[in-house]
Structures are given as C-alpha cells and as structure tokens.
Design goal:
This protein has 214 residues and is α/β, with parallel strands linked by helices. The protein has six helices and nine strands, in the order E-H-E-E-H-H-E-H-E-E-E-E-E-H-H. Helices cover 39% and strands 21% of the residues. The strands form four sheets. The protein has a three-stranded antiparallel β-sheet.
C-alpha cells in the first residue's frame, strides 16, 4: 500500500573534504533511528545515500592538495562510503546519487536548458557574501555575525555576475504550497524569505519635538 511506503532522504555529504566528522553522524543518526522504527512498525522505508560533489569547495580542496578535483573527489567518496557503512545505517546503496557523475549532472544541465529556453533563467550582477579565506560564496544562513561559519573570517560583500531563476513567476503557487507541508514554522519562514515575495512596507516615524507620527 502507498501509505506503507516511506521515502527518507538526509542531506548528502560534501566530498570536498577528505573524511567525515562527528557532525555527519549527528545529521544521520536521528533519521536513521526514525527509519528503523518505521520499518519495525511495518513500513517499507527507502533511504538512499549520495554525495553532493560540485562547487568551489571541491575545487579549493584540489588546489590545496595539488590533486585533480575528479581524482580527489572520487577518492574522498570512496573513503566516506566506508565510513558511512561502518556507521551501520539503513542506507540503500543500490540507488546512490553522486552529483559529479555524468549520469546525474546531465539531467541538471537538461533542466537548466529548459528553464533558459522558456526565459526562466537569466544572468545579471548581484551582491554576494564572499569568504576570502574559503574562496567561496556563502548563503546568508552561513554567516555568524558577519563572519564565515566555517573558518571565522570576516565576509565581504561584492558584486558577482551570476545566474538567476524567475521563481517570482511562481511565488503565489510556491507560498500556498507551504501551507500543505508538515514542516517547522522556522523552516517555512526561511523558504518564504527565499521565495522573496514583496508587497512593500509600512513605516512609522516619530518627529522630534512633536507628538505626531508620520
């Protein structure tokens, strides 16, 4: 029965580092316990595993070690698979996903081309958070008091030519869909901010020496 099937997916590890750390087990242990419980109650749990291997971190690691990024990434994946297997999680390794391999990224390329053909992808300059130490762009959620959460360096704001998707064309549909998802309110708020619908703002100013406001 459909209601007995559960698709369980955790955040993939980034093989831009040589090994996993305790934070990875923190990420995997709770859903693993939940998935095991569901199996014990008769559910068919599908829990694939994978590695998100694109971006500047992988390139920076290759530069740091002097090893070609393809070779270093594949080696790191091999090491991490052994570590995750040693954890003993209920992962389905027959359906793993590794984003740096052609059988995966050909579809992300195809999807981008479809968006571009339909005028939903465009390029422009926009400000980004840049960490000069990690030599990479950071999301707002990766900043702690204006510093990089990874290395503690002061983050710079700089303009960068980059690609954008016209998600605002679907803002209403995306926002209404959030009401039907069983997510924490904090997570929903982050998604709403990311979608970025704006209808202006009302501001009240106190006038010095007057009891009136404008």
């Amino acid at each position: 029965r459909l209601e007995d099937k559960i698709y369980q997916l955790e955040m993939f590890s980034y093989p831009s580092g040589a090994k996993l750390h305790m934070g990875h087990w923190y990420n995997y242990s709770v859903p693993d316990a939940w998935g095991r419980f569901k199996r014990m109650t008769g559910h068919n749990v599908f829990n694939p595993m994978g590695f998100d291997a694109f971006g500047l971190p992988a390139e920076n690691y290759a530069i740091k070690t002097g090893v070609h990024p393809k070779d270093s990434t594949e080696k790191n994946i091999e090491t991490m698979i052994k570590q995750i297997e040693a954890i003993g999680g209920i992962f389905d390794w027959d359906n793993d996903v590794i984003t740096c391999r052609e059988e995966y990224y050909k579809w992300t390329q195809w999807m981008f081309l479809q968006l571009y053909k339909h005028n939903l992808a465009y390029k422009k300059e926009a400000p980004v958070n840049f960490c000069p130490s990690c030599n990479t762009v950071l999301a707002n959620e990766q900043l702690v008091g204006g510093e990089c959460e990874r290395c503690g360096s002061v983050v710079l704001r700089k303009n960068l030519s980059q690609w954008f998707f016209k998600i605002t064309n679907y803002a209403e549909e995306l926002l209404s869909g959030l009401d039907e998802i069983d997510w924490p309110e904090k997570t929903k708020a982050l998604q709403k901010n990311w979608i970025g619908k704006s209808v202006g703002a009302s501001v009240t100013f106190d006038i010095k020496g007057s009891d009136k406001t404008f």
